[in-house]
Amino acid sequence: xxxxxxxxxxxxxALFLLIGMWPAATLAYDERSFRDLPWAVQLGLRVWxxxxxxxxxxxxxxxxxxxxYLDEIARWSPRGRWPVLLSDDQxxxxxxxxxxxxxxxxxxSVGELPAGDELETLLRxxxxxxxxxxxxxxxxxxxxxxxxxxxxxxxxxxxxxxxWPAAIALASGRLQPLAFVDGDFGRPNQSVDRDxxxxxxxxxxxxxxxxGYPWETLEEGVLTFTICRNMxxxxxxxxxxxxxxNPSAVTDWLARHDDGTRFGFVGWIFGDETRSxxxxxxxxxxxxxxxxxxxxxxxEGGFAQFDMQTAxxxxxxxxxxxxxxxxxxxxxxAWMNTLGGGIDPDLLNVNSRGNANFYYTLDEQLWTVDVPxxxxxxxxxxxxxxxxxxxxxxxxxxxxxxxHGAYAYIGSVxxxxxxxxxxxxxxxxxxINHVPLIVAARHxxxxxxxxxxxxxxxxxxxxxxAVPPDRLxxxxxxxxxxxxxxxxxxxxxxxxxxxxxxxxxxxxxxxxRRLALIGRDDLAIQIWRMAQQQGQAEAxxxxxxxxxxxxxxxxxxxxxxxxxxLRDEYLQTMLWHLMTPxxxxxxxxxxxxxxxAAVRASMPEVDAQRLAPHLAxxxxxxxxxxxxQRLLDQTDNARxxxxxERTLRDY
Length: 651
Hints:
Blueprint: H1 5-18, H2 39-53, E1 59-63, H3 66-73, E2 84-86, H4 91-99, E3 103-106, H5 116-130, H6 140-146, E4 153-157, H7 164-173, E5 178-180, E6 191-193, H8 194-210, E7 224-228, E8 234-236, E9 248-249, H9 250-253, E10 265-269, H10 273-285, E11 290-295, H11 309-317, E12 321-325, H12 332-339, E13 347-351, E14 354-355, E15 358-360, E16 365-367, E17 378-383, H13 397-403, E18 406-412, H14 424-432, H15 437-440, E19 456-459, E20 486-487, H16 488-497, H17 505-517, H18 521-533, H19 537-550, H20 554-561, H21 569-579, H22 589-597, H23 604-619, H24 621-633, H25 638-648
Parallel strand pairs: 1-2, 1-3, 4-5, 4-7, 6-8, 7-10, 11-12, 11-13, 13-17, 17-18
Antiparallel strand pairs: 3-20, 8-9, 14-15, 15-16, 18-19
Helix pairs in contact: 1-2, 3-7, 4-10, 5-7, 7-10, 11-14, 16-17, 17-18, 17-19, 18-19, 19-20, 22-23, 23-24, 23-25, 24-25
C-alpha cells in the first residue's frame, strides 16, 4: 500500500505549509513516513491536509433559493470558505447552534435558477470559481493538474435532482471532480434488481476512468464516490455476485469490480435542496468531538466484542467529550428521560437490536417515535438490523434520525448479522487516526466475509473526518465587510426594539424565531413571556416551542402548546419526549387531554398504549374505551389495529 511520488509530494507540501501555523500535536504524522501508513490513513490525511489549508470564515450565510446558494458558493476561494445554508426554521437553526458564527448574513434572491444544460454549466463554473479559478480559462481538471494534485474522490449528481447543492459544496470544499449521471435508478425506499442500476455502475466506472487518476485499487488515487441524487437504497443480487436472496445496500455494492472486489467507498446524499445543502455543510464545517456511545448489549457471547468501554477510554484519552451510556444508563426509563429536551452529540454510536421501526435499549423495546430530537446536527452509527431499510420514511429508525437532523447515517437495510459491523474499539481507533467515518465503518478487502457487497448502508459524505479536537482548525478569520445581505443579529436587535404594547403576535413570533436561529433560546423564552403578558400568546406560541423544549421548561411548553392548532409530528414528538417520563405524576386533566389530542399519526398505537392507563386513572375506563375506539375507526393498518385492540381489552 504505497503512495506514488506525486501524491506523496502533494501531502507533504500541504503539511509543510502548515508547520508554522499549527502546533506539533496537530502534525502527529509529520515525522513519519507517509509511504508506510495504511491506505485508509493516507486517505484521511489527504482530506485533512485540504481542510487545514483553507481558512474558515467566521460567518454563516443564509440564502432563500438555489440560485443565490450558487452565487454564494462561487465566492469561496483558497483564501477562505464558510457555511451556506438555505433558510429554514429547523435545520439551519441546528447548524448555527453548533457552529456559533460571529456573523450571520441573510441574502435576498439573485433571481431564477436555470435548468438542464444551463444549470450544469453554471455548476461547473461555480466549482471552478470556488476553488480559486477562472472558468473562462480553466476547468476543474486543469486546476488539479496545475497544482499537481490528485483528488481523493469524485462527486456525482444530476441537474434533474434536488440534491445538487450537496454535490457542488462537497466537490468544491473537498477539491474533488464534479460529474453528472443520468437515469432513473429508483427512489431511496425502493429495492430493485441489479439491471435497474447497471447504467449507474457503468457511468460511475466510466467517470472514474475518464478522470485520468488511479482508481482501480484502494492503494492510491480516487478512493471515494459521493452520490448526491436519488437512487434505490437496496439491490437484489444474484448468488453469483454475493447475493443471499435478500437485498444488499446499494452503497456497499457500488464502486466494486465485477468479482466484488472493492475499488472505492460510496457515500450517499439525497433529499431536497435545503436538506442536501445542510448535510454537506455539516460535514465540511462542524467538528465531531462530542461523542455519545450507547450500548444496548449485555456483553455476553458475540456481543462482548461490541462493548464500548475501550472505545470510550480511547476517545477520552484523545480529548473528545465522551458520554458513555451503558448498563442502567441505557435502560428505557433512563433513555426516555434523556430525550426530554433533546440531545446534542456530534457523533452518536448506538448498539441495539430490533427492526426497521423499533429498537431496544438494554431492557425494553422502543419505537421510531422514541428516536431522539437532535438539538445539534449529528452523524449516527447504528449497529442494528433493518434500521436503514427505507431511509426516506419516518417509520424507520434511519428515516426518523434524518428527519430529526442527522447528516450522516450508517445502518443496515436488512438482517446483516452482528459481525457485519465494525466493533466500537476498532471503529473509533480508525477515526482517531484520520480514517473517514464511512470508510472506518466498513470491512476492508480480505479482512472479513462481509467485505463482499452486503447490507450496511452509508449515508453522508464518505470523506467526513472525526479527528481529535487538537487536530481541528482552531482559529477562524473575520468576514470581509461586504454589504450583500442583512446581518441577522442586527435585524433581531431592531425587531426587539419594535416590541411595545402595540406589537402584534406576528412580531413577537418573528423575534422568537430569529432569536432561536442565532442560538439565544434564553432571550427567546423571555420574549415569549412578554407575548403572554401582552395577550399575544396564540400567534407567538408555535415559535416558542423549540426554545421551551430545549430548556426543558415543561409547564411553559404545555402552556404554549395549548395555544396552537397546527401541530406537525416533529412538534408533537417534542411534547411526548418531555411528558412520557412524567405521565405517572400527571394529575391535571387538561394536560392528559392535550396528550390525547396529540397522538402521533405515524404510530398512534404506541402513544395510546402509554397514555391509556393515566387517562383511565383520571377520567375513567369509559373515556378510554371511547377514545381507543375512535382511534380504531381512523386506521386500517393491521399492526396498529392489533395493538389498539389489545390495549382496549384492558379497559
